[in-house]
Amino acid sequence: MKKQIRIFWLVGESSGDLHASLVMRRINADFENVHHYGIGGPRMQKEGLNIIFPFDRFAVMGFAEVVKHILFFLKVERDIAKLLKKQKPDLAILVDYPGLNLRIANIADDLKIPILYFICPQFWAWKHKRVFQLKERIRHVACILPFEKELLDIHNVTSTYVGHPIAEEVEYQLDRVSFARFFGLDPEKKWIGFFPGSRNGELERMLPIYLESTNGLDNNEYQFLFSKARSVSHSRFMATIENSSNAKSINVIDGYNYEMMKYCDFLVLTSGTVTLEAAFIGTPMVIAYKSSFISYQIGKRLVRVDNIGLPNIILRKTVVPELIQNDVTSHKIRAIIKQYMNNSELYATVQEELRTIKAMLGEKKASIQMLKIIKEMLKIHE
Predict the structure, then answer these.
(1) pTM beyond 0.85
(2) How many CB atoms lie within 10 A of CB 122?
């Protein structure tokens, strides 16, 4: 039997769980004897990850929210330090989640553990000094946005643009008619899709506003589809829907995110990876972002980019509308929906712009490129 290869993973969000699981699948198909352990979600666990902490404890976002959970994160850091000393891996793969991952990078690097950082921290948006930590502590950075490698090259950080994982992840199990039949939808109506977020904190802030924005839109013309992420509280989600004034017109979609993005005529999205998935699929949208007052005030002083939405950041111009903090109101969301649904020329222009994103991000398969880097770092050759 060949020597077992030990890989430590740290993933803190559901999108990272999906991205990393495809890389794990590629590794498992290619390697004969590999042991995966660390922190990750259900998809990674399905690929054989042995977890050391419950994944749902990590789904927090924003400065104020992280502070509330600081004792938990300090415990995680201490326990990981002990684990890495006791069960030293051949490679540590840190995925996104820079607040914790860059701290763990310091520990792993001190232990002479080679580190591959998958999904580069967005140092170009805020906390620019993180680029110096990448240079000092990380052996190799795998970028998923095309402009990131150019910026890392300026600072002499060893990196590779591997392509965006969504190019492999987006696939459809149902056509529009089957999707309509499965969820009891009327295929003759226009569908407006809402993605309130994958964290309970986002759900509390965004879902009531999104629900209220459906009031005043013609139920004879539109149907309203609300995506429920696996990572949010089912009871909290359903209770908020049931207590809304337009509850009878709301259709809850559990799973089938890509079908929902593709078949809806317009999307209302909470800022995050979901916005890039929708852009890749090509459906016009509005992007909304709302955090706690403290988190927003801190972030406003630190963020260095003009846009918050990944589609706009990649295209380096405002292609899809954005609503931030106090501008996230039901009235403004409803007005934007009407604007795009009643203006076919504007709608077509946005569709054309979004096709550029698909061409840019679909050039490479991230899992294949990641496997090449992993083999090189482990000195495994064909």
Answers:
(1) no
(2) 18
What's the half-sphere exposure (Cβ side, CA atoms, 13 Å) at 309? 28
Please answer whether residues 27 and 7 qualify as being in contact, where contact means their C-beta atoms are separated by less than 8 angstroms: yes
Q: Identify the three-state secondary structure at position 279.
A: helix
Task: For residues 165 and 281, give the distance between their C-alpha atoms in angstroms, rounded to a whole number.
Answer: 13
Both tokens assigned to 356 = 């550029």
Q: Report the C-alpha gap between 287 and 324 in whole angstroms.
A: 8
Measured distance CA(14)–CA(19) in Å, rounded: 9
**pLDDT tens profile 36-90:** 999 999 999 999 999 998 887 776 655 555 666 688 889 999 999 999 999 999 9
CA distance 145 to 121: 11
Beta carbons within 8 Å of 189's beta carbon, 6+ residues apart:
220, 221, 222, 223
What's the token pair of residue 281? 């699929």
Domains of the chain: 5-163+364-377 (3.40.50.2000), 176-361 (3.40.50.2000)
Tokens 């330090």 belong to 81
CA distance 275 to 375: 32
373/116 Cα distance (integer angstroms): 8
Task: Compute the distance between CA of residue 87 and CA of residue 83 in angstroms, rounded to an integer.
Answer: 6
The angle that helices 98-110 and 70-86 make with each other, rounded to 10 degrees, is 30
Report which residue type is found at 334.
Answer: R
Structure tokens that stand for 44 in this block: 């990674």
Other beta carbons within 10 Å of 102: 18
